[in-house]
Amino acid sequence: MRVVILFLTTLLYTNALAYTCYSSHCEDIRIGLGAHHSKTYDTGVYLSAYAAGHWDKLYIAGGVNIGQMYPTFAPTIDSNKQDYNTLLASAYAHIGTKLGGENPLFLYIETKVERYSIGENNIFSANQLFMGAYIANHTKISSGIALEIGLGISPSITRYYTSQNTDKGFISQRSNTDGSYRIDTFIGMRFKRGNEYIKKSDIYARINGILYHNKIYDTPITLPPHNDYAFMFECGISLESLLNY
After folding, report:
1. Domains and CATH numbers, the chain
2. What is the 3-state secondary structure (H, E, C) of the chain?
3. Which range (31-40, 135-144, 216-225) has the least confidence?
């Protein structure tokens, strides 16, 4: 009887190397802590949450990042960067397809909303909506380690900047599909700790790189710069095994 139960459990539940799979679908749920560095916003920290599911060929995912950092220069030409801090908040959604089995390839469209707010009273804020095409691959490189890589480009659908100071009051700038874009890439590893009988959280580590190209306008707002970059190192744990215990 015990053998039969173990056999049925194996059919209904398999802890794949990069996610957890059941008879009808697979799940990938993570939380993490990361360090952020960019030309504009110096160094800071952020929290991340991510959840994904795929059914046969369908792939759907979403996530959020929230963090704090400090700008490397003033948000307007007549303001001082000192005593400012920056709040980063972003949310994104993926929809696409999964190709392959053990080492799947994901092709998807990403929609991302990103906001940087400088100062306690939002002295400056940058709000952007991106949408673009991405590709990612999860490859098993040993019995307990999976390599995760991805690349994509997202044109800016809309951008909205605001700034306020004592001399010039409130300044705003809005633009739509003006040629601005971002290029994202990541490489990471996921380390498996459990199996279908012993449920443990996996550990992951990932490096993200972002290149921004922004059209510049003739306004007192100095942020964001024409070209910017960001590096993000993130590590965390998986939750799907624990949530379905």
Report:
1. 17-239 (2.40.128.100)
2. CHHHHHHHHHHHEECCCCCEEECCCEEEEEEEEEEEEECCCEEEEEEEEEEEEEECCEEEEEEEEEEEECCCCCCECCCCCCCCCEEEEEEEEEEEEEECCCCCEEEEEEEEEEEEEECCCCCEEEEEEEEEEEEEEEEECCCCEEEEEEEEEEEEEEEEEEEEECCCEEEEEEEECCCCEEEEEEEEEEECCCCCCCCCCCEEEEEEEEEEECCCCCCCECCCCCEEEEEEEEEEEECHHHHCC
3. 216-225
